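A favour, since you know our structure tokens better than I do. What I am after is a single protein written out in full by you. Could you add the entry underneath, on a fresh line?


***
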Amino acid sequence: MPTPLLSGQEVSNFIGVQKLHVLVTFGNTSVAKVQTRSVQSFTRTAPGTYTVTLQRAYRTLVGIRGSWVRPSGATLQADVTADNVAVDGTLVLTTRVSSGAATDPSNGDKLMLEILVSCEPFNDTQVFP
């Protein structure tokens, strides 16, 4: 049986992972409010498409987790459709319905994001050919 992790920190096979938390509240075809200390801007660029600009560039986008608070409407998912985190600290998110069509969230919807990034060059090691 594995030893329980009592420190409260998750174990990762990536070194130096930083978690950036963002809470986004949407208006009608707009971003109404962004709560974070990690994101410089969260901008709607097209229906269902948002450019997220981090405070700085990171070597690797390790992952992204998202959860929605939506009182009604179709189920939405947020996909990363462009990753420029290593170049200029930006990524593009597209919110989609189950059919795959890009769709704006409804007024009052909230997206809770956890963006995982790292600056460690050791994560570039290729394990498998």
Q: What stands out?
A: The longest strand covers residues 18-27.
